[in-house]
Amino acid sequence: MVMQENRSFDQYFGTFPNADGLPRDVRGRFTTCVPDPRTGHCQRPFHDPADTNAGGPHYHESAVMDIDHGRMDGFIRSVEQSQDLDTDKTSCLVAGNSPSCVDVMGYKTGADIPNYWSYARHFVLQDRMFEPSDTWSLPAHLFMVSAWSARCADSARPASCKTDLGFPDRDGNMSSNPFAQQGWGAALGILQPKDADDVQGSPRKLDYGWTDITYLLHRHRISWRYYLALGTEPDCRTGQMICPPQPQAVSTGEIWNPLPDFQTVHADHQLGNVVPDTQLFDDARAGRLPAVSWVIPSGDNSEHPFGTVSSGQNHVTRVIDAIMKGPDWKSTAIFLAWDDWGGFYDHVPPPRVGGQQYGIRVPGLVISPYARRGYIDHQTLSFDAYLKFIEDDFLGGQRLDPRTDGRPDPRPSVRERAQGLGDLRRDFDFKQHPRRLLLPFGTANVPGPTPLPRPYLPPLPPSAPDALP
User: Fold this and answer.
1) Which residues, 6 or more positions from 124, have their beta carbon under 8 angstroms from its beta carbon?
2) pTM above 0.70?
3) Which entry of 15, 116, 213, 287 is 20 to 30 Å from 226 by CA?
4) What are the residue ranges spanned by the domains of the chain?
5) Contacts 24+ apart (CB under 8 A), 74-78
6) What fold characterizes domain 1-469?
């Protein structure tokens, strides 16, 4: 599982052939026009080739505004009305809050993200992959590893946990205001990538007491690792698998690395499975990749503003190339997704599945020697489908179910069993000849944090702004 950051499906694949992309009329003109309250007009999608994007706020409250009861017309309003100091808003603040710095209606083409489009053409593109809930990065990563996001009064008592889509990590929570919680939590997670409860044997209470998937993997003796961009990263300029590691000053924030805060990971003595991503390249070369892996980026190659799109694509390509070159490729399936929509426009209203409200669509890709060639998967999916695939493939169908897993917690549902959730096994054809696709990548990232760019002012749409009806 390779998880990147903050992109909507329409921003990356809205013009991909035969996908459910940006709506057009018979002449090929975009029919969507999202209101811009400041100008009194509306803005249509426009091609935005910029390598750095601002995006918009992407907390639960902003998702509600963006979705607007299924109208999907609040994306510009959400940026202009946002009062938080998330990094995504910085470019607008620097530019004097000018409406011209709002780039949430911009989209990429195959010329802007050629490797991602190549993977989509040769393997599987999922055009109905939804974030598991309408919220931001931390809950998204919690859903990714546990199918729930909750706050626990006492992590030693799973029954004390209650659903929380705002800021479930108690560390540094200095306000009861949900906006302040999330903004402060995001900043703390980036500035303080590790806290006192992240070490084995810590006397401090952990944050998360419910059951995560590693608990079941450990019980079934299934190997796993969480590869984390931390410390150094191999920056090989000519594409070779081995080169001297270059220092990387940007560490992965705790908001993208929740497993060290789980009671189960400590109790099972599994903290050692959270490792620097440099080990991924060694494991791939030596043929010792674990059965289940997560690959998590750092700030500068995550595609989260203000990381560049190209740095993220280069990072993902290096990871995929390394796995394809190794002896484990013949039995590997890579699932590539982005954790939330990042405030960027998407036209598909998120559905409710199994009584749970999904979040806004994100890109999803399946890359494997047996992934169906050039296939667009129209099933309704979320990160729950990844857990379901792991459970079916390695655990004999065992679910994260408090009635059967031995650790009763009050999660509202067993999401992997939800009617309407698609099955990732349909994305494979095991009768076809196995294949791989090694792609080039550009110059490696410059070590260290990405500098704050000058505000990018995207071009206006080709036609004059449309007046609101």
Assistant:
1) 365, 366, 367, 371, 372, 375, 376, 377, 427
2) yes
3) 116
4) 1-469
5) 74/34, 75/34, 75/104, 75/105, 75/343, 75/344, 75/345, 76/34, 76/35, 76/36, 76/37, 76/43, 76/102, 76/104, 76/105, 77/35, 77/36, 77/37, 78/104, 78/343
6) Alkaline Phosphatase, subunit A (3.40.720)
